C-alpha cells in the first residue's frame, strides 16, 4: 500500500507539468458491465496506471479491497503524437496481462492489448477529471 501512496503522490506532484495522459480515466465497460477508474501518471520515464475505484455490473462501487490500488498499466512509453506503446495492461475481468498500446483520440484514450499476436480492442477510456 505504501508503494501505491508513493506512486499517487508522485503523480499529483507532477500533474502540472505532466504528460497529456496524466490524470483519472474511466475504463470502457467490460462484458459483465463492470468498469474502473485508473489514475495514470509517470513512473520514471514511462507511464503507469493504478486502479483507484471499481464499479461492478450491478453499479456497486468499491474504493478499497479487491484489485483497488493495483497497478494495472505499466511501462507505457510515450511515442509522440498522443500514442503510447511497449507497455502492459492487466485486465481484471479476464485476469490476463496484455502487451498494450494506447492512443489519445478526440473522445478519450483508445486502448488495445495483444497476447501471442492476437489483439483485443480495449475500447475507449474517457477522462474522468
Description:
The two termini are 23 Å apart. Helices cover 10% and strands 56% of the residues. The protein has 129 residues and is mostly beta strands. The N terminus is likely disordered. The chain is globular and about 40 Å long. The longest helix is centred in the N-terminal third of the chain and has 13 residues. An eight-stranded antiparallel β-barrel has the order 1-2-3-5-6-7-8-9.
Largest sheet: number of strands, sense, barrel closure:
8 strands, antiparallel, barrel
Taking all residues together, what is the mean pLDDT?
A: 88
Strand order of the largest sheet: 1-2-3-5-6-7-8-9
Number of H/I helices: 1
Tally of DSSP β-strands: 9
Structural class: mainly beta
What's the quaternary structure here? single chain
Shape: globular
- What series of H and E elements makes up the topology? HEEEEEEEEE
Instruction: Determine the fraction of residues in helical runs and give it as a percent range.
Output: 10-25%
Kindly estimate the percentage of residues that lie in beta strands according to DSSP.
Answer: over 45%
Poorly predicted regions are: 1-16
* Rg for CA atoms: 14 Å
- Spatial separation of the terminal alpha carbons: 23 Å
Amino acid at each position: 500500500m505504501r508503494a501505491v501512496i508513493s506512486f499517487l503522490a508522485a503523480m499529483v506532484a507532477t500533474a502540472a507539468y505532466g504528460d497529456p495522459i496524466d490524470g483519472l480515466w474511466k475504463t470502457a465497460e467490460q462484458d459483465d458491465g463492470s468498469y474502473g477508474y485508473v489514475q495514470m501518471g509517470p513512473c520514471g520515464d514511462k507511464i503507469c496506471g493504478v486502479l483507484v475505484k471499481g464499479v461492478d455490473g450491478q453499479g456497486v462501487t468499491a474504493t478499497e479491497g479487491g484489485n483497488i490500488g493495483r497497478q494495472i498499466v505499466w511501462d507505457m512509453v510515450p511515442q509522440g503524437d498522443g500514442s503510447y506503446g511497449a507497455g502492459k495492461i492487466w485486465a481484471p475481468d479476464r485476469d490476463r496481462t496484455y502487451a498494450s498500446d494506447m492512443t489519445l483520440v478526440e473522445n478519450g484514450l483508445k486502448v488495445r492489448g495483444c497476447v501471442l499476436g492476437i489483439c483485443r480492442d480495449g475500447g475507449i477510456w474517457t477522462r474522468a477529471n
